[in-house]
Structure formats: C-alpha cells, structure tokens
Amino acid sequence: MILPGFEQHIEFSKIIQENGNNLLNIISDIMDFSKIESGQIRIKKNQFLANELLKTLVKEYSQKAVEKNICLRIDPNNLTEEVYVDNDNNRVKQVLVNFVSNALKFTEVGFINIGLRKENDNIKFYVSDTGIGIDKEHHHLIFERFRQVETANTRRYGGNGLGLAISKNLIELMGGEIGVESAKGKGSTFYFSLPL
Ligand code: ADP
Question: Is 84 helix (H, G, I), strand (E, B) or coil?
Fold first, then answer.
C-alpha cells in the first residue's frame, strides 16, 4: 500500500473542508427557508455603520478573490459620507455575503465592487461584477426558490438556488427592495435598498 504524502494530505483535507462548508451552507439555507416559510424569522434592529460593514466584507472575502485572481474592493466611487442604518445588521450582512459569494462564483476575470449610494430616504447597497451576466428573461426567475439560470444538466457551478430567494424575503421583511441589473456576458449588479 502506498501512503499518501504530506502534500496529498493537505489536498485531501482542503477538499474535505470545502465539501463540509458546502454542506453547512446548504443546511443553513434550508433552515432559513423553512423559518421564512413558517413566518418565524425575526428582524432584530440595531444601529450600525454601513461603510464599516462593507470594509468587513472586503476583508473577509479578499482571500477568496485573490485565489481566483479577481479584485474585490470597495467601489472607488463609493459614498464617502458615513451612513448609519437602523436595521438587522446580521441579515443585511447575510444578503451581501450571498451577493459577494455569487459574484465570486460567476466571475472569472476582472473585479467585484461593493458600494453604497443614498437615494432619497433610502440607502442602496450594491455588489457589481464583471462575470458571466444574466439574460433579461431570467432576471425574475433567479429570485424564485431553487431556480438557477442553467439547468441541472448544463450546470457548471455549485449551489442550490436558494440564496437569492432567501435574500429577497429577508430584504422585504426589513422593509426594502431587491433587484438586479445585468445582461449576458456584461456582468451583473445586485442591489437592495433599505429605508434610512
Ligand atoms: P445559487 O448561487 O446557489 O445557485 P442563488 O439563488 O444565489 O443560488 O442564485 C440563483 C442563480 O442566479 C444562480 O444559480 C445563477 O444562475 C444566477 N446568479 C446569481 N448571481 C449571479 C452573478 N453574480 N452572475 C451571474 N449569475 C448569477
């Protein structure tokens, strides 16, 4: 019997860790979805600094971006003014994490910008990427549960098609609106706005 070498051990542990994380994500998505369906999600409002949340996200996900040779950054045109938001910061972060994870998954070259914009009495959070983009006819579909642009047969990317459905529900529970601007091959911008 040939014992695997040290490098192989590291390789295997990485695969196990990655699959473990994927499984954990699936379970937490399903848990969230059942809570939403049964009306048991509670929004816990607190005041937080939106600009700080964006910085945390860039810190937490930049390693993944580096591994893919993509630049993940705060939009150079981002709002410089500090904006305090009175809402559930964990849920806001959850939706942004979903956007950023998708952007990382569906982008091979270029950059991902995370930013903030003030629009009337709302604050708009957005994540834009230079990835594969989405045909207009699919824009509605992707916010429905278990829906993905490619079918299972042609699918090249992982995921379960629940992330955006959960995000839409969470944003609506927080009194906001979610949306996407995208065209096939032209990148995507996912955004949501919340009342200030
Ligand atoms: P998942 O990513 O697990 O498949 P989501 O609900 O988060 O589920 O996304 C649904 C679908 O929307 C994805 O499968 C993909 O087809 C499309 N999508 C989401 N984000 C992007 C993006 N940034 N670029 C291209 N397609 C995307």
Answer: strand
- Choose among 122, 121, 124: nearest CA to 75: 124
User: What pTM was estimated for this model as a whole?
Assistant: 0.89
Q: Return the best residue to mutate from 106, 127, 137, 180 for the ligand 1 pocket (most ligand atoms within 8 A of CB).
A: 106
Residue 126: CB within 6 Å of ligand 1?
no
132 CB under 6 A from ligand 1?
Answer: yes
Q: Which of 98, 117, 94 is nearest to 43 (CA)?
A: 94
Q: Give the pLDDT of the chain (196 residues) as one tens digit per residue.
A: 556 688 888 888 888 988 888 888 888 888 888 888 888 888 999 999 999 999 999 999 999 999 999 999 999 888 788 999 999 999 999 999 999 999 999 999 999 999 999 998 999 999 999 999 999 999 988 998 777 777 655 566 666 788 999 999 999 999 999 999 999 999 999 999 999 8
How is residue 114 written in tokens? Answer: 């995370």
Cβ 61 under 6 angstroms from ligand 1 = no
Element (H, E) at 191: strand 188-195
Asked if residues 121 and 196 have their Cβ atoms less than 8 Å apart, the reply is: yes
The alpha helices in 68-123, defined as continuous H runs, are: 89-105
Q: Which atom of ligand 1 is nearest to the CA of 103?
A: 23
